[in-house]
């Protein structure tokens, strides 16, 4: 690439012949970058810089009487006619272009070195950041291991034990709210029945005299399913072949009345709904204490496991669940499912002389 020595712009190859070329330094100049007429310039034209150097040399050098400079002074280089020497022009242009290319290559090489240096600096900073992050992760892992160790040492188990105790206490509080309630199950359900009149009839059949003022509330609880419909609905009856009706929940005014009603039901075990004024076929009904959902599920588990282990006595009293293996064995108060496994297998533990055995997993 050839640049103009005046404006420093690139001169196309087609325009080089129209430009002025210094006979000494071979630098190209646009015609409009020079003052004066281009045609009036000699073939051995010198650029302003070279012309100034020549003038300074002539002014300093001593002149002989004949008007010829001394032999030690450099002679002016006179180039051949550029219009008639195409080969020389091509060589000079190639040299200029080669010099410019080398200069640009050096500039690009310097820029590449700077970029590589910046890249090395960024990689070093990134490596330091990774090292710091790795150290923080190691510290975090150490803290997690310490917390897990604390949980393993008993902190977590103590918290779980506290939560379990709170749940048991809350369930016992809920059970105390039901201390005056009884639940009558398997009693025929009919359309338009009066639950208060029905409980009074049941009490009379069991030999207990109850007044209407002794009944705080009486109602059927639970979802009414299709298989427990009363007579007259969809043309189906509710006799002995019908499904299990919803339980009748009764709240009495005094706790003593509830105990008397449950005692009378146990004395007359096997009583049926005959003579209660119902149109359905007679069926046996059962009177029990009303339990919370947790106690009801627990009592169901106790009965299932008691049957498998041949425990003879399983009952509830004042909202508590009790179990006894035989007549001469002590009773066991079961509060949680963990107590279940202990009750059913405590005899085996004593016989095998086992201690500190986690029996919860047996359930």
Automatic annotation (TrEMBL):
The keyword Coiled coil applies. Keywords: Coiled coil. Residues 102-190 form a coiled coil. Residues 292-339 form the FP protein C-terminal domain. InterPro entries: FP_C, Znf_FYVE_PHD, Znf_RING/FYVE/PHD. SUPFAM superfamilies: FYVE/PHD zinc finger. Transmembrane segments: none annotated. Residues 225-245 are annotated as: Disordered. It comes from the Eukaryota. This is FP protein C-terminal domain-containing protein. It comes from Plutella xylostella (Diamondback moth).
């Amino acid at each position: 690439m050839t640049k103009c020595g005046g404006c420093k712009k690139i001169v196309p190859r087609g325009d080089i012949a129209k430009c002025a070329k210094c006979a000494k330094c071979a630098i190209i100049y646009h015609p409009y970058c020079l003052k004066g007429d281009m045609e009036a310039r000699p073939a051995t034209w010198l650029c302003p810089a070279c012309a100034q150097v020549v003038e300074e040399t002539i002014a300093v050098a001593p002149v002989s009487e004949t008007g010829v400079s001394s032999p030690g002074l450099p002679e002016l280089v006179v180039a051949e006619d550029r219009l008639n020497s195409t080969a020389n022009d091509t060589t000079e242009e190639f040299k200029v272009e080669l010099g410019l290319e080398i200069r640009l290559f050096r500039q690009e090489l310097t820029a590449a070195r700077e970029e590589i240096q910046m890249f090395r600096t960024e990689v070093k900073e990134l490596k330091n950041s990774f090292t710091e992050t790795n150290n923080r992760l190691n510290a975090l892992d150490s803290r997690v291991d310490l917390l897990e160790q604390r949980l393993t040492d008993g902190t977590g188990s103590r918290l779980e034990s506290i939560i379990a105790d709170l749940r048991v206490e809350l369930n016992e509080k809920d059970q105390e709210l039901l201390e005056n309630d009884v639940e009558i199950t398997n009693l025929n359900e009919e359309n338009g029945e009066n639950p208060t009149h029905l409980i009074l009839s049941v009490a009379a059949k069991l030999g207990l005299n109850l007044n209407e003022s002794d009944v705080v509330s009486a109602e059927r609880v639970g979802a009414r399913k299709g298989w427990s419909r009363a007579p007259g609905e969809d043309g189906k009856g509710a006799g002995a072949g019908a499904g299990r009706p919803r339980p009748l929940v009764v709240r009495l005014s005094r706790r003593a009345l509830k105990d008397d009603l449950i005692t009378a039901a146990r004395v007359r075990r096997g009583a049926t709904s005959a003579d209660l004024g119902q149109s359905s076929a007679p069926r046996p009904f059962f009177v029990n204490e009303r339990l919370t959902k947790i106690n009801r599920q627990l009592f169901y588990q106790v009965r299932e496991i008691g049957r498998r282990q041949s425990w003879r006595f399983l009952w509830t009293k004042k909202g508590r669940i009790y179990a006894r293996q035989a007549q001469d064995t002590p009773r066991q108060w079961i509060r949680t499912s963990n107590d279940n496994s202990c009750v059913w297998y405590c005899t085996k533990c004593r016989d095998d002389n086992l201690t500190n055995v986690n029996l919860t997993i047996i359930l």
